[in-house]
Amino acid sequence: MTKKAFKTFWAWQDDAEEKWLRKMSREGWGLKHYNWFIYTFEQIQPTDYVYKLDYKGNYADDLETYISLFEDSGWDHVDQFQNWHYFRTVATSTIETPDIYSDTESKVKKYEDLSNVILTVLLSIVTIFFIIVLPADFSFMKVLQIIYFVLIGLNLFTYVSLRRKVNRLKQEKL
After folding, report:
1. DSSP letters of the chain?
2. Which end of the chain has fewer CB atoms within 10 angstroms, the N or the C?
3. What HEC string does 40-63 produce?
4. In DSSP terms, which residues pair with 85 in a beta bridge?
5. C-alpha angle with apex 22: 84 to 49, nearest 5 degrees?
């Protein structure tokens, strides 16, 4: 039996997403697939799976090596969406919440890579807006202008939130 759930998390809310996935597995629903805010779960025996999300900034040149590195450390690769990878392992009584990051620097790099992607998208949208959309004088362009304002705002909000998380992690490290 499978179950689909629609749920949204911001890019910097991976901790909250991991907690929700863990709660679902305790209720007997193991993540099977993720695609654009739609989570597909398969019914399982209720298990205390710890889920971790990793953002892999570079593309699939070394994907097999990347996944086998995690599998050698006891993590199962559940799914991949864009550059996000979903891993899980069973919580044990000795290590209740294992982590895929052994140091803060790796975690900081994950969010810096992600914020750089968001910044690139943001700059592209802003450039298109100022070159093409803003000077156009067609009525349907008003709708496009509003959409662009929303996209710019969302990307800017995401970028700033990711940078705050990076700074907070760096402060915790000190």
Report:
1. -EEEEE----TT-HHHHHHHHHHHHHTTEEEEEEETTEEEEEE-S---EEEEEEE--S-GGGHHHHHHHHHHTTPEEEEEETTEEEEEEE--SS-SS--S-SSHHHHHHHHHHHHHHHHHHHHHHHHHIIIIITT---HHHHHHHHHHHHHHHHHHHHHHHHHHHHHHHHHHH-
2. C
3. EEEECCCCCEEEEEEECCCCHHHH
4. 54, 80
5. 90
Residue 127 scores a pLDDT above 80: yes
Q: Output the CA–CA distances (angstroms, integers) from residue 45 to 30, 39, 48, 52, 86, in the order listed.
A: 9, 18, 10, 20, 20
Residue 18 has pLDDT above 90, yes or no: yes
103 confidence band (pLDDT: 50, 70, 90): confident
According to DSSP, the residues that pair with 33 across neighbouring strands are 40
C-alpha radius of gyration, the chain, whole number: 19
How many percent of the chain have pLDDT more than 70? Answer: 95
Whole-model pTM: value is 0.78
CB 41 within 8 A of CB 79: no
| Residue whose pair of structure tokens reads 């679902």 in the numeric block | 24
The 10 Å Cβ neighbour count of residue 120 is 12
